[in-house]
Amino acid sequence: MDADDKRIHDILGNDDYERTEKNANRYRSHLLNKLVLPIVVTGREDFQWEEPYLFGGWDKLEYKELKKTRPSYTDSFELQALGTPDQFDDVTAKIKRTSDGKVFEIGLSWLTCEDKDADALELLDDYATWHTNY
User: Fold this and answer.
1) From the centroid of its chain, how far is CA 80?
2) Are 119 and 34 in contact (CB under 8 A)?
3) Is the pLDDT of residue 1 over 90?
4) Mean pLDDT, to the nearest integer, of 9-25?
5) Is the peptide bond before 85 cis (omega within 30 degrees of 0)?
6) Domain-wise residue ranges, the chain
């Protein structure tokens, strides 16, 4: 078991690491106890709505306009709160874009820490590892 797997095991406290609502809620509780919010986050990778614009050759001007009203992986946000899991068993994150104050909800697994806080970075990265791989 590598270090990431051990930390995930310690958080979930069982041998069932599957991505389920129950485990997402267990992970959410752990994060609420460990994270000091708000923290500055950004996209781990392009958000789903952005893929056709970045890789599918869709209109770049339309993409630029949509980025004004939608969150983009290139933006910086304050992670303000953690909500209940969504339909993909991803803990929802309430984020506020630092450039204009617009508030969005997105799956936490799409975000990574931009702060220099190594603990927060590890917590968010471990969560994304769990959500993506289990």
Assistant:
1) 12
2) yes
3) no
4) 87
5) no
6) 3-133
